[in-house]
């Protein structure tokens, strides 16, 4: 297993995984991811914030990190945190508990970057996903109605989000 930054060579596969994730969301009757702008993904890659797990020479999972997320986390954004966004798993690798792998990696990433928290959000109250993230070590902090979402992707507009956190100092 390799965990590494995604490269520009991965862009088509990243978009394929996002499309597959959206198709999966559709089957669960939950809020769908919008089609993300190519420039967003290119920027995340250039800033070394787009990540991948490679298994058997295939991208098994992707995600994005940030060190700031004020529109979702509000005043809590002042806390030293790593924020994880848009986890998308290749269907060929589902069931391998890759979120737990990401959590282990994120704990190390947080320590290396002097961050106390690992945080995530998901749009809506998806109880199955909430329970899964709790099993992966996250505390569920509850639902929050977002305010100014103009610069966030479309699925955040007029949405409530479920917030999750791991305190690495505990």
TrEMBL record:
Residues 1-170 form the N-acetyltransferase domain. Pfam families: Acetyltransf_1 (PF00583). InterPro entries: Acyl_CoA_acyltransferase, GNAT_dom. Keywords: Transferase. The keyword Transferase applies. One of its GO terms (molecular function) is acyltransferase activity, transferring groups other than amino-acyl groups. This is GNAT family N-acetyltransferase. It comes from Chitinophaga lutea.
């Amino acid at each position: 297993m390799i965990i590494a930054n995604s490269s520009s060579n991965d862009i088509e596969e990243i978009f394929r995984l996002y499309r597959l994730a959206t198709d999966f969301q559709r089957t669960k009757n939950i809020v769908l991811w919008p089609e993300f702008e190519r420039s967003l993904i290119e920027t995340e890659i250039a800033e070394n914030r787009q990540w991948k797990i490679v298994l058997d020479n295939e991208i098994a999972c992707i995600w994005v990190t940030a060190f700031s997320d004020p529109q979702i986390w509000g005043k809590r954004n002042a806390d030293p945190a790593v924020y994880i966004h848009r986890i998308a798993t290749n269907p060929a690798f589902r069931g391998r508990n890759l979120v737990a792998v990401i959590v282990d990696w994120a704990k190390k990433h947080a320590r290396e970057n002097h961050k106390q928290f690992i945080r995530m959000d998901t749009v809506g109250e998806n109880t199955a996903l909430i329970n899964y993230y709790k099993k992966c070590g996250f505390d569920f902090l509850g639902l929050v109605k977002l305010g100014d979402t103009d610069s966030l992707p479309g699925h955040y507009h007029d949405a409530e989000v479920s917030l999750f956190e791991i305190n690495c100092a505990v």
